[in-house]
Give the backbone structure.
Amino acid sequence: MMVPPRLPVAPRPYQDELLSSWLVRVAAHYGSEALELMVYLAGQGGRDAGARQVDDVAPDMGLLRLWAKACRIDPERLRRRTLASRYPDRPRDWFLTETVPVCSACFDADVAAGRDAYLRGNWRLAEQVVCPAHRTMLLNRCPACRGRLRLSFRMLNGLLRPFCRKCDAVLTGGGGGTEDPLEAEFAAGVLELQRQIGGIVSGSPGPFVRLNHGIRTLWAPLDRDGAARPVLALWFDEPGWNCPYEARAAVGRPAPLQHLSVRWRALTLVILHGLFGAELVPGAVLPEAALVLFRRAAPMPWLAQSRDARNRKGKRTIEASAERVHRLSKRPVHRLNGNFLDERGDFGRIHP
Ligand SMILES: [Zn+2]
Ligand SMILES: [Zn+2]
């Protein structure tokens, strides 16, 4: 059997670093991309391994052992860096899978400390919208071009720096935090909520089931005349409120936070606080304001399910309807009423 190649010099992973971020750093030190280096490490017969990405939550240990061997690191040390190992009580859909937001002040701290910039593990938590170290909102848009943030890491003066893939602006040296006192106050308030939600997610099942139910209900489509607008449209109390395009993918989803930008996730936490007070989750008796909203949720299968976590039946049906509702929420919106075109006909079929 072929002996896997070794890399003469490889950076060590930082304590709070995402595994995928460490792989990018190792590869960048060889002027390569993580995937290219994976193909090289896996050798001629290992093209499959190269096609697989290392998963930050629960990676394939075979792949991880290849990297560990090449970099002379104990594979167990890498396993402890996985999100599944760092957050053992956290369900998988509470880790973000789409774009991961970043804190530019954290990147500035990397520059100040004279180390590579790297992605923090806690940026992938679904409730994380404020950096706990810098108390500023995370970014999911590039501050220079305002496009949806996709990073590429490149060497600059011997250290790795984050760049916007679209406009090539470097994401450091922007001064980090915000100057706007209102913004800073909002971030500080949300930071408290996010801490509390984090505790609920890894805490006892009762409050966690109620939390999921609260969030799913807020993002469920309205039952009538607003159908593909979410229930939280009523919270705004503005007739004709349109669900903005960037939030539409979350409507009717079983894990809405996965599909929302930082701002909309923050707002969801704020609304939970507004409706349920310090508890943040619906209790046995709903406050009047919450009752008005929750009555209007279209009967989505996973709403019934999140009320009763023991009911594991009908998973297939749930996934199938989730797909349908998602397709529906992608449809064009009528410019006058904010509703998706043709939704009535479509919704007829998913109603019991
Ligand atoms: Zn930060
Ligand atoms: Zn940009």
In short: The longest strand covers residues 151-156. The pocket of zinc ion (ligand 1) is lined by residues 103, 105-106, 131, 133-134 (CB under 6 Å). The CA atoms of residues 155 and 340 lie 46 Å apart. The two ends are 59 Å apart (CA to CA).
